[in-house]
Amino acid sequence: MPEELLAAIRDFDAGDHPGAVAAVEWLSTIALDAESARTWLLIGSERVVAYCALASGSVPLSRRQRAAVGSAYRTTPATIMAWAAKAMDAEVDGRVIVEHAVSMAIRVRRFQGNCVLGLDAFDEDVAAIWKGRYGFWNAAPPLEPAAEPPRRLWISLDAFSR
Questions:
Q1: What pTM was estimated for this model as a whole?
Q2: Which CATH superfamily includes the segment(s) 3-161?
């Protein structure tokens, strides 16, 4: 990997929110060697301005949600946006990251049959951003009453790409 790109990754700064700090840490220490996710960098002016990491996974959906996206499975196949962040001073809208993730998920759907893009919000504040700005929904609650409520959010690939 070119040293300039490694330096750009090391210099990436998404801010001081704990989720942003975790995203920077993941990008700089794990992303390049991760076999379970593929990381996509948005480069501008010779620096990383945003990134997302995509993986395969699933999202639990209710019957109504499954009907809306055409899935026969409660645990619906999905492309998971495992990590996403943008530089705190980037002039890029976060929607660019989501649009890229959706476009990649649509490509994967041709071969794999995923219906949704899912993600695990870092915390409730971050979940509110994903829901408010980008239209993500809460996944279905767990079937077991003692299970923790899910942090997984989702959006229909078809609805977002319209």
A1: 0.91
A2: Gcn5-related N-acetyltransferase (GNAT) (3.40.630.30)
